[in-house]
Design goal:
Strand content: 25-35%
Number of helices: 4
CATH superfamily of one domain: Cadherins
Structural class: mainly beta
CATH architecture of one domain: Sandwich
Largest sheet: 5 strands, mixed
CATH class of one domain: Mainly Beta
Number of strands: 39
CATH topology of one domain: Immunoglobulin-like
């Protein structure tokens, strides 16, 4: 309550209040000076308020005393419970952890004044989660309280922690939070096979690397702690089978390493071991982290194809062997216990020329055509062996046949020899060196001998010297040669080899006589091919001739097509003919109106019929038709029209018969003069047009026009 010494109680003074919350949170009685709070005060919102009060004269509004300031402090009471920083905490620890292992720390705060009493002093306690976990009362640190907690038994724990103020005393306020604790896995469990023995069956036809079966050892751990590696440690199938690990399912996949054979062995026993790949040394005391099991694999018999005694055969045969000679034998047999008989055949896709054949019963291969080593040295064929009872069961084997050489080819020149000799040559002068080749193969190397043919040995103008190194030289026998007497010499040379049987051939050397200078340089020769060896062969000449013929045929066809091309339209004027038609809006005679104008000038003058009348009017003899003189026979016009008429009748590209044809031909003048149907023998002045009114309504407009003209003349 505020009171002024100047207040006499007569109501002349008025108290006013200003400052924090004045008029809203705090109000003052202007008559008595009592200050009251209008709302509940909260220290946590504002602990101190500063107010100013003054007494003023109610009538004049002037202060009667100086303004007074006073401070209102809010005393704290325990009205806020502790609040955790999180509603839910999540934490994890490894399983099998020691007692007292730190898990997580929780924190709660109290909004009350920590300097005033114990309102803000918080104490932690555990409401749920014992005996597995504990919490430190002052720090809120949660720790493990039980030894050897196993994730495989229980993985999730929910712990409830309470925070209470007033130091945990009675009457204090409290708050709670939940802590979810997960035990993480460690490798504390070894793999274990659910059974000690596994049985599998595999057909003997199972190809290598094919799976036979799957086995799995169970591990209670997860992730990398449950990874297992499988291996075959012992057994009679150690080298026949293998095992790998499926990383997705952690299964052991048993596969075939080598081809199985029921007839050889039909049962294999293996010992398979499963081992953890990530072992934790802390838990080795629990025992070895591996397990083993026995796997029995039964091999099943299947009908197998025949098996050849070798994976491939190599045979040799001389090229001169007669047809049907046996060059070798292949052997195959059925590996099954039934030992079914086998028949042989040659895969004709590998022997398209049918050079070889095979005995279907015993597998002997023989020739069916002559061989030639120089044409083909190796023949690679495929032999098929199939069971007679089941031809689908077949196998193949490659057979490589090498053709051995025999001396069946005579040596021949390495090239075509054509040389020249100068007219001024001297005796014993070398003019050409010869060499030879042989298609046959010689193990010790070829040895050729050269000599002149017997018919040329004595009378030849040249000599031949064998160099004993598979070459020979041609020398002149005399001084000077005359090309005008003999321009070309043909020297026969015999070439022989030293193989058995000896083969020889006679080759010809062409020697031309030419003019040379004193240094032996060629000047001129009747054989121009020696200087200009490049010429046109017969094939080239034929090709050129064919090109010329094709070109001529093309020109002829082009000219014919131009003559037969479509003719230009007869009406070539850019002006549309319809622009010249005058319409009188009168109905004509229709299709039967063939007498509208005289077309006699276009007809044969002898065929003109003067008595033809119009068929669209009443045939009255109102006036005599005008007779024109007989047209003079114009031969030029008649011939021209007849020629064009014939061309249009025979030309399929000509316009139709009723089209307008423009001939563009100027004759000697029209013998018919005017074509007007209104023209008569009388002149315009003598003509009476009253008859037009009798022709009917279709000629009314024309009659009106001429009657008007008569009226103008009369006037």
């Amino acid at each position: 309550q505020l009171h002024s010494d100047q207040d006499k109680g007569d109501g002349s003074l008025k108290y006013i209040l200003s400052g924090d919350g004045a008029g809203d949170l705090f109000i003052i009685n202007e008559n008595t000076g009592d200050i009251q709070a209008t709302k509940r005060l909260d220290r946590e919102e504002k602990p101190v308020y500063i107010l100013r009060a003054q007494a003023i004269n109610r009538r004049t509004g002037r202060p009667v005393e100086p303004e007074s300031e006073f401070i209102i402090k809010i005393h704290d009471i325990n009205d806020n419970e502790p609040m955790f920083t999180k509603d839910v905490y999540n934490a994890s620890i490894p399983e099998m952890s020691d007692v007292g292992t730190f898990v997580v720390q929780v924190t709660a705060t109290d909004a009350d004044d920590p300097t005033y009493g114990n309102s803000a002093k918080v104490v932690y306690s555990i409401l749920q989660g014992q005996p597995y976990f504990s919490v430190e009362s002052e720090t809120g640190i949660i720790k493990t309280a039980l030894l050897n907690m196993d994730r495989e038994n229980r993985e999730q724990y929910q712990v409830v922690i309470q925070a209470k103020d007033m130091g945990g005393q009675m009457g204090g306020l409290s708050g709670t939070t939940t802590v979810n604790i997960t035990l993480t896995d460690v490798n504390d469990n070894p793999p274990r096979f659910p059974q000690s023995t596994y049985q599998f069956r595999a057909p003997e036809s199972t190809p290598p690397d094919s799976p036979v079966g799957r086995i799995k050892a169970n591990d209670a751990d997860v992730d990398e702690n449950a990874e297992i590696e499988y291996s075959i440690t012992e057994g009679d199938g150690y080298d026949m089978f293998g095992i790998t690990t499926d990383k997705d399912t952690q299964e052991g996949i048993i596969t075939v390493k080598k081809a199985l054979d029921f007839e050889n062995k039909n049962l294999y026993i293996l010992k398979v071991e499963a081992t953890n790949t990530h072992v934790d040394p802390r838990f080795l005391y629990l025992g070895p982290f591996k397990d083993s099991a026995t796997v029995r694999i039964q091999v099943e018999d299947v009908d197998e194809p025949p098996v050849f005694s070798r994976p491939a055969y190599i045979m040799e045969v001389k090229e001169d062997v007669p047809i049907n000679s046996v060059i070798g034998t292949v052997t195959a047999q059925d590996p099954d216990a039934a030992k079914n008989p086998v028949k042989y055949s040659v895969d004709r896709h590998t022997d398209m020329d049918r050079v070889f054949n095979i005995n279907s019963g015993n597998g002997s291969i023989f020739t069916s055509k002559p061989l030639d080593r120089e044409t083909l040295l190796w023949h690679n064929i495929t032999v098929i062996a199939a069971e007679i009872n089941n031809p689908k069961q077949s196998s193949r084997v490659p057979v490589f046949i090498k053709v051995l050489d025999v001396n069946d080819n005579a040596p021949e020149f390495a090239m075509f020899y054509e040389t020249f000799v100068c007219e001024n040559a001297k005796a014993e002068q070398l003019i050409q060196t010869l060499s030879a080749v042989d298609k046959d193969d010689s193990y010790s190397g070829h040895q050729f001998s050269f000599s002149l043919a017997p018919e040329a040995a004595g009378s030849s103008n040249f000599t031949l010297q064998d160099n004993r190194d598979n070459t020979a030289g041609i020398f002149t026998r005399k001084n000077r040669y005359n090309r005008h007497e003999i321009s070309t010499y043909f020297l026969p040379v015999v070439i022989s080899d030293n193989d058995y049987p000896i083969q020889s051939s006679t080759e010809t050397v062409t020697i031309r006589v030419c003019a040379c200078d004193h240094r032996g340089k060629l000047l001129s020769c009747n054989a121009e091919a020696l200087i200009h060896p490049t010429g046109l062969s017969t094939g080239a000449l034929i090709a050129i001739l064919l090109c010329i013929i094709i070109l001529l045929v093309t020109v002829v066809l082009f000219a014919a097509l131009r003559r037969q091309r479509k003719k230009e339209p007869l009406i070539i004027s850019k002006e549309d003919i319809r622009d010249n038609i005058v319409s009188y809006n009168d109905e004509g005679g229709g299709e039967e109106d063939t007498q509208a104008f005289d077309i006699g000038t276009l007809r044969n003058p002898e065929a003109i019929d003067d008595n033809k009348l119009r068929r669209d009017i009443v045939p009255e003899t109102l006036f005599m038709p005008r007779r024109t003189a007989a047209a003079r026979d114009n031969t030029d016009v008649r011939d021209f029209i007849n020629q064009r008429l014939k061309e249009n009748d025979t030309d399929p590209t000509a316009p139709p018969y009723d089209s307008l044809a423009t001939y563009a031909y100027e004759g000697n003048g029209s013998v018919a003069e005017s074509l007007s149907s209104l023209e008569s023998v009388t002149t315009d002045g003598d003509q009476d047009y009253d008859y037009l009114s009798d022709w009917g309504p279709r000629f009314k407009k024309l009659a009106d026009m001429y009657s008007a003209m008569d009226s103008d003349k009369d006037s």
